[in-house]
Amino acid sequence: MYDLKTVRPTPQDLGTRTEFVGVNVPIARLLERVIAERQQGRLEGMTFTDCVIVGPGVVVPDQATTLANCNLGNVKGDIRNLFLRSTGPMITGCISLIGCRFEGCLFSGVGFAGNEHYVEAMIRELSPRNGSPA
Known about the structure:
By secondary structure, the chain is α/β, with parallel strands linked by helices. The protein is 17% helix and 32% strand. The strands form two sheets. Strands 2, 3, 5, 7, 8 and 10 form a six-stranded parallel beta sheet that branches. A four-stranded parallel beta sheet has the order 1-4-9-6, with no helix packed on it. It is globular.
């Protein structure tokens, strides 16, 4: 699990890395560097372990992206505050996560977007056992 006291600064080689361990990762800057270095407009096949993922930003995870033992950030008492629902068949202006893995990370200032099914499934998964939002 991340430890804010030991998280290292953002690495200089953001655009070429595929694995991040115990570092600060500004998600929008990471995408900018990936676009510049790889001409790829998404984050694909990356692994983040014990990192602090910093916004502002909104991510759209695909089904192969996993979040294990992560803290998704301050929800101000309502888990629904993390999510944005798409109303069309496509989401524009967000950071696509394709087959990425997040283990033990803290998200700060990052929202999650998806279709109605994704958002409702995430809210159910993250809500207390009684079914009401946190």
